[in-house]
């Protein structure tokens, strides 16, 4: 806007228009002065003073430009005046957005054109036609009279989102004239599409027991709406209960395992997954899909027997092949993993039993004999069919053989013969009748009786022992010979018995001993000899007459295998029971021959020879062994063995295979089974061999066992892809995680060897643009794609098995990125320069303006148009090919350059360029050269040679005549050749003479000539010596939307003035030595590093502002700096120590290094040499901490540093001494009663005076300074005020206390955060009349809220105590070991028993004057690097993390870590005042009359009036009717 005395005007598109009519005759003044305020961007403002000369143009005698040309003497050719003017649209092109799904007839836009003509010539008609896509004509209609465009039918963004029209307006003049404009209608999205899943039902199988975090599959849904209405969020609708095993990533739809699945618990899961598009208009839409997850069985359960011990009793006469018991084991797995096979692994001593492998039925296959083996303990193995199988070998079957009475008693000898002397006494034992019974128990208990006897028979038998004794006297002369029978009877059922005959001869007295004919007998007998067969006859001779010799086996008859009978004068030894070679191989019998009185003995050696009585027996009815398929030919699979209880050849076993299996052979002697050809698991997974063990006895006996050889898979097969190559397509605007295609491979191996995962590792993932789901093989996008950057990806993926070592196979994948119209056309440059000869023929093509569109097909069709600067119409641009045609004569003397704005449209995307059409003339233009300066920041350091020896820049000159060649020359000021100039190119170098530590400012003049014209400008060389002191005390500020070139010209000067104003110093005291773009963030942010001398300082001598103070001053005065410098100053960035890189209590110190080798930066008026700072850090263990890793805090009060009975208070990294009265100093070392003045003992300008009697006193300046040391304890805070102190910095523990008074219900008392209001902070506020602390360690916020009845907003003094500490890590020995991540804050209000309130406050009547809050996180310390603010926060654009930003009231007695803070020692004061006027004593000078009592209140007083008086001061009397209490008046 421009304002003058009688004139107002506005700028539009670079042209100046009158805001209202102007009558030149009335003004009387041809010159007009205008003051214009121009705005180029928000916040940028430029003031311009225009001096205009108004010229009166005679009517019908040419235009204004012609008159100007006449005045200048350069009148050119004139164009003919047109009688009928063309209509004009307000804009060359229009863009409008219409929501989809609006009803038919919805108004889109009204295009308005104007025509200066009257009558029919000014009546306009509108029409339009679609460009690029004729379908657009079906959706819109234009009112030919009004230009109003409406919809013909409902729009659908997903069908077509952009419509481009050419709109023509035609007048009705003669001839008719028309103008065109272009309309782009963008259809905006409404949420009218629900999400659509890639599949309505997903099915996937997973193995049970997969690890937590296992990625099951990715569920994806797409939405045809725009991204804002298609921001998909996934959730499992039925995710509770059994489905809690799974979880889904809400953003990418990845279903993962949260708990290990167990198929035996649940084999099928059905998840309902919902996708919500989070749409806004009209609202969100959702869809659901079902995910069926089958859990595949893993062989993870052992077979379990139904009983721990099976006990079965069977009679010994059980029939062969009889089922005696069935064992049963169950397996919770399924399929082959649950198929159980049984076998006997031990206890089947003689192969008596057989177990049916599939059923567990045990049969008797050989006869049982109780008399041989009475009990069998069979160990049963249950083995499942898994790979590898799981075996339970704990099954036990106890077979108890029950005796059957199947053996009749058997006498050891028959007949029995004996002799007895006739003179033996009654009871004399004559002969022992002995029978045996092979049974047991009652079946073997025998009872004897005599048979065939007569009454008075002289012999009797003991029915239990079988001894026959004399029962009556014998008389040989009466009866010489007795023959009778004896019966042995068992007690079995049925009873069995045997009989034998007994002959007893009664003898006379005998005196000769029977004598054996041989003392030793030897013989052999086969073990299979038949019971009862004769073995040997022994003979003894008795010389007595009529002597009868009887024979007995007196010893050596082990297990009564032999019997002897007297027969024909000899003793016949017979076989009484079967022999067993394994039990006894030799018998040594002692045979006694007796004549009744005398006897003789002989020994009989009987050797038992072996017979083939036993068959070979395998230890197990079947064997199971594992064999890896990779074993070489000839490898031993297993060695099996059978045992034969025979000996010799009868026990020599030969092994053969029943059926020939060509892969294996067995050694006939050792039973070793070996491979004789390669084994392939993939051809056959198991083999069953029937092995026969035969002995070499006669007859030959055998046993059969079965060997199950399970082939273990070796990883010998690489995965095989189903295709040799995969191809897929994806649109370039596909969202991340979009499915492109799925690859699949199989592996003939089994188990983990056959489990295939997919990966791009070692292959090609398109530089990270794609990733592959490892289990499904689905390839998805990992990043946004750009077809114009990479149109085709040739990926390479691998299928990898899980064998050891793993095998993998590669497959090429061809992915074509399909184009979308995501690229606007691009001109070669944003500014195009075209040279056109003046006087070019009207209608000729003078240039072709083209843009390129990286898209393809219809997306790359471009439409060209002129959008600005072509008024009046001088040029015409062909809409399709960009040919620029002249419409009028071009005259260099009238106008040397035309600047038009052109637009290239690839609907809906556009690109614009400024075209400078420069008319070519003779060389009549001078070179252009502005005054410029060279700022050389010279950082002189011994560490490196950083002096710039190369080209530092170029003289900033140019010539409008583009063909001119410039030549550069120094005219003056460079006699010492400080600058080295290339006169042909303008390149500049610095002389080595400047490589020193001396500052310099050298003005020079330089000229530039194009051969005809010559211009001269001022070049100023400024050399600033950058010192370490400057660098150490520097800070870096961040400027938003700023470039290096723009900052140097012209904003550098404004920035220096702004910083100087903030610091109250001079512009020359501010040293900017670095300008650098911030590459760590998006956007145009410029880092500017500077330092500044304090007002009294001199460079090289004086002190620089410390960086901490600089940072605080800029922080507090950013608004002022922004106003002065016209630059947007951002908050300070966090330093490198924020992430806590140091261990335990170590302190991180930010270390600045500087790189002095960067090149010069140039703008059109400045060349600037920067010094780049490089951030670093170091860790050190601060005072007050110790340990190898700085893990232990020391109480520095241990040494008693406080003198004169001062109390030592420990604090982090130090201590504070609380001194007794009359003592002061850091260690209470000064005694005001007896000491003398020392500098600094009196604060705030107070004067120290020594007393004559000893001691000293402080005389304070006027104001609210308090004795004894002139410190200030109290400040008042009016509205919108605050005071700033040094921040608490990085702390592990601290205490803060202060007292306040206010009547505000909500206020901010204290705030300490970071310079950018992010991360760590503490804030003490009043919220609804109660104290509330909020603190954060940068991760979460914690609120601590004590409560006192009545609140704190009553105008009375209230105290706040804050204690913050970090809980230490407690080591294994109970010793603190560094800080933990647990942070605790305790807040107490007024006189509060903190411990009681926190621990028992609720139990003792809501005693809540103190509260505690705990926060846990990764960070250990509280990093409070910003200033400590009392009473409010600066008016900065940041959002402070507090509810209140203001405080009205008073504060006093601020103490940090038990150390009182002087309230006058602030860094900055923003409106607070000393003392507290609102709390002064207002009750002075007898304010209350008539005996009233004065009470001091907040900022006032009140009078407690006696009865009968009232008013503010009790000055009003009354006549009371009755007594009443005092009345308070305020």
Describe this structure in words.
This protein has 1530 residues and is mainly beta. Helices cover 4% and strands 44% of the residues. Strands 102, 105, 110, 111, 112, 115, 116 and 118 form an 8-stranded antiparallel sheet that branches. Strand 108 and strand 109 form a beta hairpin. Helix 5 packs across helix 7. The C terminus is likely disordered.
How is this fold's topology laid out?
Elements (H helix, E strand, L loop, with lengths): L1 E2 L4 E5 L2 E4 L5 H4 L3 E11 L2 E10 L10 H9 L15 E2 L3 E7 L7 E4 L2 E2 L9 E8 L8 E3 L5 E4 L10 E10 L6 E11 L7 E2 L3 E7 L7 E4 L2 E2 L10 E4 L9 E3 L5 E4 L10 E9 L9 E11 L7 E2 L4 E6 L6 E5 L2 E2 L9 E7 L6 E3 L5 E4 L10 E10 L6 E12 L7 E2 L4 E6 L7 E4 L2 E2 L9 E6 L7 E3 L5 E4 L10 E10 L6 E11 L7 E2 L3 E7 L7 E8 L8 E6 L6 E6 L2 E6 L10 E9 L4 E11 L7 E2 L3 E7 L7 E4 L2 E2 L9 E5 L6 E3 L5 E4 L10 E10 L6 E11 L7 E2 L4 E6 L7 E4 L2 E2 L4 H4 L1 E9 L5 E3 L5 E4 L10 E10 L6 E11 L7 E2 L3 E7 L7 E4 L2 E2 L10 E6 L6 E3 L5 E4 L10 E10 L2 E12 L7 E2 ...
Parallel strand pairs: 7-14, 16-23, 25-32, 34-41, 43-49, 51-58, 60-67, 69-76, 78-85, 78-92
Antiparallel strand pairs: 1-2, 1-4, 2-3, 4-5, 6-9, 8-12, 10-13, 11-12, 13-14, 15-18, 17-21, 19-22, 20-21, 22-23, 24-27, 26-30, 28-31, 29-30, 31-32, 33-36, 35-39, 37-40, 38-39, 40-41, 42-44, 44-47, 45-48, 46-47, 48-49, 50-53, 52-56, 54-57, 55-56, 57-58, 59-62, 61-65, 63-66, 64-65, 66-67, 68-71, ...
Helix pairs in contact: 5-7
